[in-house]
Amino acid sequence: MRFEAKRCGVRFNPPSIVLVYVNTETKKLRKRVIPIRNFTSFSDCSKAAEQLKEHPRHGDYLEAVSQSQLEKLHVILQDHLNGFSLKHSLDTFHLDPNEDLNKLDDKELARKKGQMDREFERNRKHKDDPGFVYDLEVDFEKTPQENCSWDESDEEF
């Protein structure tokens, strides 16, 4: 059988991933609820997503769902287990240019860096893209430098 995933989401109670798919042989729209067992607030989301994708019972259904999408769904479930709201979980997936990344823990920082890498790859111009210019030079406006008292003189050394 061949399955084409249309949508996926999470159910909090019991912790499950909900997959809406089309059976390409019968053209029928179906819903599959995949329970997430032995998943705690300390579990590794990427490992759990990988195990789910390789599961003998669910792997065929999740073939078209990307690993990163499954990881995001596991992060949402984990945030719910840690007491965070759905809005908070979804906000962590958006990049805020003014956010101080020094204040994040290692796990959250790795998530943000992964998002930045994906955003960079999506925006990057390749040689085959229309409008690609090799060795493009751009002049930026110069901003006035602020004077700092500690770099004014070297007489003290």
Automatic annotation (TrEMBL):
**Predominant place of localization:** cytoplasm
Pfam families, alphabetized: CEP19
A single GO cellular-component term from the record reads: spindle pole
Q: Name one GO biological process term.
A: microtubule anchoring at centrosome
Q: Where in the cell is it found?
A: Cytoplasm, Cytoskeleton, Cilium basal body; Cytoplasm, Cytoskeleton, Microtubule organizing center, Centrosome, Centriole; Cytoplasm, Cytoskeleton, Spindle pole
What family is this? Belongs to the CEP19 family.
Name of the molecule in the record: Centrosomal protein of 19 kDa
Tell me what organism the protein belongs to. Oryzias javanicus
